[in-house]
Design goal:
CATH topology of the largest domain: Rossmann fold
Strand order of the largest sheet: 3-4-5
Structural class: alpha/beta
Number of domains: 2
Strand content: 5-15%
Order of helices and strands: HEEHEHEHEH
Radius of gyration: 15 Å
Distance between the termini: 33 Å
Number of helices: 5
Largest sheet: 3 strands, parallel
Oligomer: single chain
CATH superfamily of the largest domain: P-loop containing nucleotide triphosphate hydrolases
Helix content: 40-55%
Shape: globular
Length: 130
């Protein structure tokens, strides 16, 4: 894990881009090394944090659980991005965003509709303060 953390910190420190992303895999509590999870990496890197949730059935619970875990560990997200599901049977996208905003009133919630790429610019502006 120490090598992964050092690699991420080095890449961030030497980046020339406006934004550098370190993406976790499989969710916050997914093991990524012996005795370490994606949450441990997030905590160690200490960058701007974006919690990405889905629009599938159960996504509100999963996202709010991740939010609680992140907050308890002192790495609360800067914002929550909700990725719209392609499944026509998925819950209402607008309803999912509204529920998350209601239950996480101190964290901005941004929708990432499948047919609109402008959401990324809005998210970047929010994250970077620009």
């Amino acid at each position: 894990m120490d090598e992964v953390i050092a690699f991420c910190r080095d890449r961030i420190a030497n980046a020339t881009a406006d934004l550098m992303a370190v993406e976790g895999v499989g969710g916050l509590m997914s093991p990524i090394a012996d005795g370490a999870t994606s949450l441990d990496l997030l905590e160690a890197v200490q960058g701007i944090r974006v919690l990405v949730g889905g629009g599938y059935l159960g996504a509100v619970s999963h996202t709010l659980t991740a939010l609680e875990v992140m907050t308890a560990r002192g790495v609360a997200p800067t914002c929550i991005v909700v990725s719209e599901s392609a499944d026509p049977e998925a819950p209402s996208f607008a309803g999912t965003i509204a529920l998350l905003a209601q239950h996480a009133p101190t964290v901005p919630v941004i929708g990432a509709p499948r047919a609109d790429s402008d959401w990324a610019a809005r998210a970047f502006a929010m994250i970077s303060g620009r």
